[in-house]
Amino acid sequence: MTVARQIGSAIRGLAAGDALGVPWETAPPAQVDRDRLFELPAGRWPSGTTSDDTAQMMIVARLLADTAGSPAAPEFMRRLAAEAGDMRGIGSTTRRAVEEFTATGRLPSEPGRATNGAAMRMAPVGWMVPPGDPVRRRALVRELSRGTHTHPVAIGAASIVTAMATWALEDPDRILAAAVEEAEHLGLPEFEAVRQAASGTWTPPPGGIPTQAAPTIAAVVHVVRDSTDLATALVHAVGLGGDTDTVAAIAGGILGGVPDQPPPPWWSRVLFPEEQEVARLAGRLAELRGLSIPKSAL
């Protein structure tokens, strides 16, 4: 399986997780009807709909492809602002940043809240940058986060996502170790839960996963550890309740890149008009991944 096909599968995996979780967003675990998951039942949005998780991921993927892997935060914000009006489920932190940028052209200057809006869109950086270049990967994460999220924990969560996503393409057995290593590199106490989740000692909150960045990433690591394949992981993610679409989307963007993952059983129900772009974007990100040279080798 080529890297381009793996990246294409990861793009679809993220969208599949997003769509599976959308009907149950904010629901506590007890209210997630596991017998109806694959129906993608309609709620406030039509059946099969994806949310801002998929939309923002696609903006990042396009921007990386269009700029040869050298994006700038203002350009990301221009593209986000152009689409935000039609974006389903956009978070309050991101919406405020878009409103400020639209009105003033400025990026946030205060740390703001440590929510998961940067983490949910950041997998394409991991798909594009190979494991051997963590310096470049982290720099791109900071640049593509700071338009909406400048809190160190929000940026750190996005960095952990990219570490897991890049290793999923190379060696799936390294995904959990990569998450722990990135958390240790960050050195933030909020990410102690990542180590616990990787070791199996983390307990999900009973009311569901909140939109805060640190518990979101702990939930993703927990799901990856306790699942055997993509579909099982996404079902597990939604079953945790709370921010179901984001946890499942991030998990899908990581595990979808593992070689030879079949499409989830509900894929035919997912409304994903961006499918026509997948091959082009995946091919371009794979090309850029192959061109990436670790700074230590320069």
UniProtKB/TrEMBL annotation:
<dbReference type="Pfam" id="PF03747">
    <property type="entry name" value="ADP_ribosyl_GH"/>
</dbReference>
<feature type="binding site">
    <location>
        <position position="51"/>
    </location>
    <ligand>
        <name>Mg(2+)</name>
    </ligand>
</feature>
<dbReference type="InterPro" id="IPR050792">
    <property type="entry name" value="ADP-ribosylglycohydrolase"/>
</dbReference>
<keyword id="KW-0378">Hydrolase</keyword>
<feature type="binding site">
    <location>
        <position position="243"/>
    </location>
    <ligand>
        <name>Mg(2+)</name>
    </ligand>
</feature>
<protein>
    <submittedName>
        <fullName>ADP-ribosylglycohydrolase</fullName>
    </submittedName>
</protein>
<feature type="binding site">
    <location>
        <position position="245"/>
    </location>
    <ligand>
        <name>Mg(2+)</name>
    </ligand>
</feature>
<dbReference type="InterPro" id="IPR005502">
    <property type="entry name" value="Ribosyl_crysJ1"/>
</dbReference>
<feature type="binding site">
    <location>
        <position position="52"/>
    </location>
    <ligand>
        <name>Mg(2+)</name>
    </ligand>
</feature>
<keyword id="KW-0460">Magnesium</keyword>
<dbReference type="GO" id="GO:0046872">
    <property type="term" value="F:metal ion binding"/>
</dbReference>
<dbReference type="GO" id="GO:0016787">
    <property type="term" value="F:hydrolase activity"/>
</dbReference>
<feature type="binding site">
    <location>
        <position position="246"/>
    </location>
    <ligand>
        <name>Mg(2+)</name>
    </ligand>
</feature>
<keyword id="KW-0479">Metal-binding</keyword>
<comment type="similarity">
    <text>Belongs to the ADP-ribosylglycohydrolase family.</text>
</comment>
<dbReference type="InterPro" id="IPR036705">
    <property type="entry name" value="Ribosyl_crysJ1_sf"/>
</dbReference>
<feature type="binding site">
    <location>
        <position position="53"/>
    </location>
    <ligand>
        <name>Mg(2+)</name>
    </ligand>
</feature>
